Amino acid sequence: IAERGATSLRGCMLPQLLRRGLVRAGRAQPATAAAWRSLTATTMDELIQAAPADVSAATAAAGEGNKNYVLLDVRTAKEFGEMRAPGAVNYPAFSMGPDGMAPEPGFLESVQGAFPDAAAQEFFVTCRSGGRSAKACIMLAGAGYTVQNVEGGMNAWTTGGLPTETD
């Protein structure tokens, strides 16, 4: 693919990547910027395709009666304790590091330990606003899990009037 085509394709896909929380608006670190420029159109398309579909909070809540249903909250333990959806399980995917949110070591291994049969459950993954959960969905899908990202996260859950609980 010609560089011009790849550049315009990156421009078309950038809004989708931003919406899913896969990239952030603003100034990138030099290494991040270099990596971004090196992406080919194929790589960008694969990244978009790897991101599981978003579902509404209402759709996620409606699945609760299904025996294979897992509502996975990937926020920090503190956020989870302050407010969560009833029945949700918490496996933090990211923690605050010196440079902002960083992947939580052992996230995938913790989920795999609790849910060893990847095909046995359908995961609805949530966070505060849908960004961290989109990234977690990509990690989980790569490990063979069936995942859907809750669009808007717990913000959408509460705005939609869905039930919540606290510690």
Automatic annotation (TrEMBL):
Pfam families: Rhodanese. Residues 65-166 form the Rhodanese domain. CDD domains: RHOD (cd00158). InterPro entries: Rhodanese-like_dom (IPR001763), Rhodanese-like_dom_sf (IPR036873), Thiosulfate_ST/Rhodanese-like (IPR052367). PANTHER family: RHODANESE-LIKE DOMAIN-CONTAINING PROTEIN 15, CHLOROPLASTIC. This is Rhodanese domain-containing protein. It comes from Phaeomonas parva. The lineage of its organism: Eukaryota, Sar, Stramenopiles, Ochrophyta, Pinguiophyceae.
